[in-house]
Amino acid sequence: MSTSSTGVSITVLLPAGRLPIDLMEAIQEQATKYNLGIYCSLMQNIRLINVPDDVAGKVRDELALLGATFKGPGKFPLPRICVGKPHCSFGLVDTEKLSNELLARFENREKTKAKFKISIAGCTVGCSWTKNTDIAIMASRVGYSVYVGGKGGMVPRTGIRIIKMANKQEVLDIVEQLVEFHDLKTKSKQRMSKLINDPEFPFSEV
Fold first, then answer.
1. pLDDT digit string (tens) for 1-33?
2. CB–CB of 55/101 below 8 Å?
3. How far apart are CA 206 and CA 202, in angstroms?
4. 155: which residues sit within 8 A by CB, 6+ positions away?
5. Which domains does the chain show, CATH number per domain?
6. CA-to-CA distance for 205 and 183, rounded, in angstroms?
């Protein structure tokens, strides 16, 4: 939950960008009741904005009753994904399924250090900004590629490819290795782009 001069904002996390109907209805109800703004974030979450301080707890409690979880420090980042197969004619893999498998891999992790993002693309078009994301998975007809070190912002950077033609299990193992390396090498917020030139970085560009 972040604050501004007009109140606080509450970010509801939506794994794989999916918004359950009952949660959508509850968000609309709370927004109508308290005259809140609704923002669809670039990370595929829903943010309630201009929430008065004195009702923020009530709003969170109402949404939590439906299983909503909220953005906060230490949480593993939800992957940003394209819609994938079978919803896109270019999609080669079910991106929602892969995202859920990745999250399951880290569900028991107590704390994840900031700051990195993950994206998944169901084909080589890379609509989910795979080459400009800290850790990115891109599907192709011959397996998966993994890119590391991409970023947007004022000084954008294209990530480097560290493996190609990988299977899903290899991809999950590599992501875990990258997350552990990030944890080992960081003390505060740190993008992956600052770590790929570390002498101990475990991968080379391919």
1. 665 557 899 999 999 999 999 999 999 999 999
2. no
3. 13
4. none
5. 2-64 (3.30.70), 80-194 (3.30.413.10)
6. 21
